[in-house]
UniProtKB/TrEMBL annotation:
Residues 26-35 have a biased composition (Polar residues). Residues 18-40 are annotated as: Disordered. It comes from Cucumis melo (Muskmelon). This is Uncharacterized protein LOC103486265. Coiled coil: none annotated. The gene is LOC103486265. InterPro entries: PEBP (IPR008914), PEBP-like_sf (IPR036610), YbhB_YbcL/LppC-like (IPR005247). Pfam families: PBP (PF01161).
């Protein structure tokens, strides 16, 4: 997958068919459940200070009809010095220390911070991982949400990278 200098997002855990393994979902077993997947990024745009990540199930059906994306994970203030997030990062920032400790996890649509892959009524949902390269540090208070994030990054986005996975 030649490196053409393009800002991109990848995961060693998501195979070539783009399948999200069960352990990253609520269908995993015990400790192998609801772990956040490992992510790596390449070629940050020049001037990137921090990164922000939004993961959504873009095929989540609203019981009343339309498809409304379901927020699975919101992560802000990822220092540009980092090259990725390790597996099971969610909820473990302090243990990792260093640059990881500065990262803030926002609330997902279950209103709790961290990674939460929903229990799906049917499989084949697409999960969109969208990484934003920002020219600034975000101050979203202690309860960051996707809405606050999208508002806060206006005018600060240097680039976006998207990774799709299917569950």
């Amino acid at each position: 997958m030649g490196d053409n200098g393009e800002f991109r997002l990848a995961s060693s855990a998501i195979d070539h068919e783009g399948r999200l393994p069960r352990k990253y979902t609520s269908e995993g077993q015990g400790a192998q459940k609801n772990k956040s997947p490992p992510l790596e990024w390449y070629n940050l745009p020049e001037g990137t200070k921090t990164l922000a990540l939004v993961v959504q199930d873009i095929d989540a059906p609203d019981p009343n009809g339309p498809i409304v994306p379901w927020t699975v994970w919101v992560v802000v203030n990822i220092p540009a010095t980092l090259k990725g997030l390790p597996e099971d990062f969610s909820g473990n920032q302090q243990g990792l220390g260093g640059d990881y400790a500065a990262i803030q996890e926002g609330n997902n649509d279950e209103k709790v911070p961290g990674w939460r892959a929903p229990t799906l009524p049917s499989h084949g949902h697409r999960f969109e991982f969208k990484l934003y390269a920002l020219d600034d540090h975000l101050n979203l208070g202690n309860k960051a949400t996707k809405e606050k994030l999208l508002e806060g990054i206006e005018g600060h986005v240097l680039g976006e990278a998207v990774l799709m996975a299917v569950f």
